[in-house]
Amino acid sequence: MTAVATATPPAGTSAAPAGLSIRGLVKIHPGPVCALKGVDLEIPGGMFGLLGPNGAGKSTLMSIVAGLVEPTAGTVLLDGVDIVERPAYVRERLGFLPQDFGFYPELSGRAMLEFLLRLKGISGARGRREMADALLERVNLADAAKRKVGGYSGGMRQRLGLAQAIAGDPRILIVDEPTAGLDPEERQRFYRLLAELSVGRVVLLSTHIVDDVATLCPRLAVIKSGTVVADTTPAAARESVEGLVHEGFVADGDLVGFAREHRVLSAVLVEGRTNRVRVFVPPGAAVPAGFTRSPGTLEDAYLVLMRVPDHEVPPALARSIPAATEAAR
Ligand SMILES: Nc1ncnc2c1ncn2[C@@H]1O[C@H](COP(=O)(O)OP(=O)(O)OP(=O)(O)O)[C@@H](O)[C@H]1O
Ligand SMILES: [Mg+2]
Question: Residue ranges per domain, the chain?
């Protein structure tokens, strides 16, 4: 069956760039809700993080790339092939772990996986069982194969979801908010697995957890209200806010007033009384009294994009990579 065919790209057969190329993507959902407002992204290969808050358009973008939803306008090329015109091309080369992955709690892990493999078009009971066992091994669930999925932890379920996604060695792996609700240990485990799986394929990871991206992704885009507001690397993003982030303490009762005067990125309550506050201070603006400079983090850069008015966002942060690419042409 096509779903299990080795999904390596037709290397050297096309002059088109390898990887994923998204151009002018627009999606208007019924409502109407404009979920994507003209997205351009070039994703050559490896792990790519799509970072954005709730409702930003991450799942919409992923469903389009997966060939499950038709865009209102724009093109998506996978290894040079237009997948809006030929959704079957991507479906045959795709592993997808959707945001809301349904399981049957009464089935064992292995039975669940065999069922999912059947849905993916893998025929032959024996072949399916062998494949299921190999995949369970791959995601470190062999020992839990006979246990009911209803008793799995969140991390185990996500690994089971990943097992069906990687069946058939897909060229492109899409994982939509896979670490939401996982505890730190499970998250680390999932990261490790995903990093191993990213070799030789395009992996698109959506998340609203900055740590996911900082740990895993050499490249990332930040999406806000259907628009890509940054396309960068974790290091470049950190650098772009370097020297502009300051930290200090603000009493709980003063925080609202303080936030009116300053660009607060984050405020963390300490011992229930005071707040450790990080602020963005644009060049030329006054540093709040008692605050000291703090090394910029990816979280700071993300929060600058979310909370600071557009005209104050450091130019090096806003859509940094495309601008650089443009200059290099
Ligand atoms: N099928 C749909 N019909 C109507 N509106 C939709 C549909 N799917 C998504 N939307 C809307 O489009 C916008 C983007 O939604 P989307 O699910 O893509 O965001 P997201 O970044 O994945 O959010 P989350 O982090 O909550 O998963 C939201 O305003 C959402 O309400
Ligand atoms: Mg989503």
Answer: 2-103+161-232, 240-319
> Tell me, what's the pLDDT at 12?
42
47, β-bridge pairs: 203
Nearest CA to ligand 1 atom 3: 29
Which of 112, 99, 226 lies closest to 174 in space, CA to CA? 99
Instruction: Determine the residue type at 256.
Output: V
Q: Which of 58, 207, 212, 302 to mutate to test the pocket of ligand 1 (most atoms within 8 A of CB)?
A: 58
The two structure tokens encoding residue 7? 């999904």
CA distance 24 to 26: 6
The residue whose CA is least distant from atom 2 of ligand 1 is: 29
State the Cα–Cα distance between residues 40 and 78, nearest whole angstrom: 14
Q: Give the pLDDT confidence score for residue 271 in this predicted structure.
A: 87
Residue 108 bridge partners (DSSP): 148
Per the CB < 8 A criterion, the answer to whether 14 and 3 are in contact is: no
Closest CA to 49 of 301, 327, 266: 301
d(CA 255, CA 107): 51
> Would you say how long the chain is, in residues?
329
For 2-103+161-232, CATH number out of 3.20.20.70, 3.30.300.20, 3.40.50.720, 3.40.50.300 equals: 3.40.50.300
Concatenating the DSSP letter of every residue in 241-281 gives HTTSEEEEEEEGGGHHHHHHHSEEEEEEEETTTEEEEEEE-
Closest by Cα among 243, 238, 242, 219 to 321: 219
Reported pTM? 0.88
Question: Which pLDDT band, with edges at 50, 70 and 90, does 144 fall under?
Answer: very high
Secondary structure E strands in the chain:
20-29, 33-43, 46-51, 73-78, 81-82, 94-97, 172-176, 202-207, 219-224, 227-232, 245-251, 263-270, 274-280, 292-293
